[in-house]
């Protein structure tokens, strides 16, 4: 999967971090995730950093075409997932 824009920036004073990612995961690829054949999404940011997150955080954004859009993924200082918002 290719990420067109992955930017790490502070979210607020609670020391959370946010990554913005643009994703397109087609229907067939998403079906692999749904069936448990894949558990993580790996994305390479434009500056070369690799980002890995649990695929199941995208479940509520599933459409007939898979997953598509820009997402803000929020995590704490320890890298633990906190929330996801479709932009």
Task: Please give the structural blueprint.
Blueprint: E1 7-10, E2 17-26, H1 27-34, E3 40-44, E4 50-54, E5 66-75, E6 81-86
Describe this entry's structure for a reader:
The chain has one helix at 27-34; strands spanning 7-10, 17-26, 40-44, 50-54, 66-75, 81-86. The radius of gyration is 13 Å and the shape is globular. Helix content is 9%, strand content 46%. The protein is mostly beta strands and 87 residues long. It contains one helix and six strands; from the N terminus they run ββαββββ. It has one domain. The two termini are 19 Å apart. Mean pLDDT is 78; it is low at 1-15. The strands form two sheets. Strands 1-2-5-6 form a four-stranded antiparallel β-sheet. The longest helix has 8 residues, at 27-34.
Short description:
The protein is mainly beta and 87 residues long. It is built from one helix and six strands.
Instruction: Tell me the Rg in angstroms.
Output: 13 Å
Strand order of the largest sheet: 1-2-5-6
Number of strands: 6
Uncertain residue segments = 1-15
**SS-derived structural category:** mainly beta
Count of helix runs: 1
Choose one word for the global shape.
Answer: globular
Q: What is the multimeric organization of the chains shown?
A: single chain
Number of domains: 1
Looking at this protein, list some descriptive labels:
single chain, 87 residues, mainly beta, 4-stranded antiparallel beta sheet, two-stranded antiparallel sheet, 1 helix, 6 strands, globular, disordered N terminus
């Amino acid at each position: 999967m290719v990420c067109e824009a992955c930017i790490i920036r502070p979210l607020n004073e609670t020391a959370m971090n946010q990554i913005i990612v643009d994703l397109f995961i087609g229907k067939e690829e998403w079906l692999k995730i749904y069936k448990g054949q894949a558990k993580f999404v790996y994305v390479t940011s434009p500056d070369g950093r690799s980002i890995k997150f649990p695929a199941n955080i995208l479940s509520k954004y599933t459409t007939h075409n898979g997953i598509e859009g820009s997402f803000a993924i929020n995590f704490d200082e320890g890298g633990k997932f906190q929330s996801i918002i479709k932009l």
